[in-house]
Design a protein that fits this description.
The structure is a single chain. The protein is an alpha/beta fold. The protein has 14 helices and 14 strands. The protein has helices at residues 62-74, 109-117, 126-139, 159-162, 169-174, 183-196, 249-259, 263-272, 275-280, 296-304, 308-332, 342-347, 349-356, 397-410, and strands at residues 2-8, 13-20, 25-34, 41-47, 53-57, 87-94, 105-106, 144-149, 205-211, 215-221, 224-228, 337-341, 379-380, 389-392. The strands form 2 sheets. An 8-stranded mixed β-sheet has the order 5-4-3-2-1-6-8-7, sandwiched between helices. Strands 11-10-9-12-14-13 form a 6-stranded mixed β-sheet, sandwiched between helices. Strand 2 (13-20) and strand 3 form a beta hairpin. The longest helix is centred in the C-terminal third of the chain and has 25 residues, at 308-332. The chain starts with a strand and ends with a helix. It binds adenosine monophosphate. Adenosine monophosphate binds at residues 212-213, 241, 295-297, 300, 342-344, 347-348.
């Protein structure tokens, strides 16, 4: 079954096309539509085994973007299917499922209405995600669509970990609680990791560190999410590329008062101007110091040059991950396996080394040589005989979305 996997952002569409069978999946093409709504947009289409195809033209909205993707997929030269009849379903990454969705589901009017009802708590993501679903309906009416939620894996987090210690009425009135994100990735790498070390997933304690531009750590106890570092929104928990992570709310309201910031401006500062970018002030371009970077590779370069703020930023970033590993081991009563994934988690041996060094007291014997394993592969980073194992596992959220889509469309 040929499935289109879509991850729609406010001005971008990431996509993959996979041929999914009961026992196997083959990637046919992947690509990216960027700069939707700007004067000039871009499509980059990468078919497997064929040359990359690029297109630059105005892409006023998601519907136009999706039309261009479908044209590329069926193009005589760089296409991967003969006609759109071969495309049987679309799977969408949807950021927020609130308390409604505990699993992926087929999209119908009720599902769309629920995704829309969550706009106010996921204003940056859900509108774009629904836009992708509606655009697909316009371009290919009748196609089966599946929504896969970033939050649904975390629905098992117990009340002691999902409630905030504020008046209970705010949970009752507004459903203010921890939801958690990156669920698809945490679940995927935990399963792969359990298999790699012969653990019984339903009887294991795993800490998964999804460290990308956005980042979160999850405690997975007996196959279920027990706690996670992101909260009501993706702002909470770890220090990220541009997000502050956990901090005293009073410090934030104090700054807002001093600077005369609105709540929206405060939210923007904490989500978009903070994290390693805000702390380090490092620029990705030495000629343009207004161009402050959130990319860990730029922070790494400044760190190596001895830039003091970059050193504080990266050490703080790593130390926060370490704190969560310890906290989650404590609340699960131990840990069998620690996993690193995501852009930084998979590619930065320095970050992993900081997090897992000096953890012998809890049974982690880090192996600095194994930690330099081959990029793009899954490998252990603890020493032979380490009581607690640690590994790098490459995440594949698109694969999970494609498999869920196959499962739900196949069954209906
Ligand atoms: P993601 O959000 O998972 O795509 O991850 C994006 C982040 O991964 C960015 O901050 C990148 O700088 C980071 N990243 C990618 N490659 C490397 C690398 N070789 N070393 C350090 N960080 C990297």
């Amino acid at each position: 079954m040929v499935i289109l996997v879509l991850n729609c952002g406010s001005s971008s569409i990431k996509y993959q096309v996979l041929d999914v069978q009961e026992q196997s999946q083959t990637l046919l093409a992947k690509g990216l539509v960027e700069r939707i709504g700007l004067a000039e947009g871009d499509l980059t289409h990468k078919p497997q085994g064929k040359d990359k195809f690029e297109l630059h033209c105005p892409i006023p909205d998601h519907t136009t973007g999706i039309r261009l993707v479908l044209d590329a997929l069926t193009h005589p030269e760089h296409g991967v299917i003969k006609s759109l009849d071969e495309l049987k379903a679309a799977g969408h990454r949807v950021a927020h499922g609130g308390e409604f969705f505990t699993d992926s589901c087929l999209v119908d009017d009720e599902v769309k209405a629920k995704i829309e009802s969550l706009y106010s708590i996921a204003p940056l993501h859900n509108p774009a995600n629904l836009e992708g679903i509606l655009s697909m309906e316009k371009v290919l009416p009748g196609i089966k669509q599946v929504a896969v939620f970033d939050t649904s894996f975390h629905h098992t987090i117990p009340a002691i970990n999902h409630l905030y210690a504020i008046p209970y009425e705010y949970y009752e009135k507004y459903r203010v609680r921890k939801y958690g994100f990156h669920g698809t990735s945490h679940k995927y790498v935990a399963r792969v990791g359990a298999e790699m070390f012969g653990l019984d997933f339903e009887n294991s304690k795993i800490v998964t560190c999804h460290i990308g531009n956005g980042a979160s750590v999850t405690a997975i106890k007996n196959g279920k999410s027990f706690d996670t570092s992101m909260g009501f929104s993706p702002l909470d928990g770890l220090v990220m590329g541009t997000r502050a992570g956990s901090m005293d709310v009073s410090a934030a309201t104090y700054i807002a008062e001093k600077e005369g910031m609105s709540y929206k401006e405060l939210d923007n500062m904490l989500n978009k101007k903070s994290g390693v970018q805000g702390l380090s002030g490092v620029s990705s371009d030495f000629r343009d110091l207004s161009n402050i970077s959130s990319d860990m590779r730029d922070i790494d370069a400044a760190y190596d040059e001895g830039n003091e703020r970059a050193i504080i930023a990266r050490d703080m970033y790593c130390n926060r991950i370490k704190k969560f590993v310890g906290e989650y081991a404590a609340e699960m009563g131990g840990v069998d396996l620690v996993i690193f994934t995501g852009g930084v988690g998979e590619n930065s041996p320095e970050v992993r080394e900081y997090v897992l060094s000096n953890m012998e007291f809890m049974g982690i014997e880090f192996d600095a040589v194994r930690n330099r394993g081959k990029r793009g592969t899954d490998y252990e980073i603890t020493a032979e005989g380490s009581k607690v194992k640690a590994a790098v596992i490459c995440t594949d959220e698109e694969l999970v979305i494609a498999k869920d889509t196959f499962r739900l469309v196949g069954a209906n």
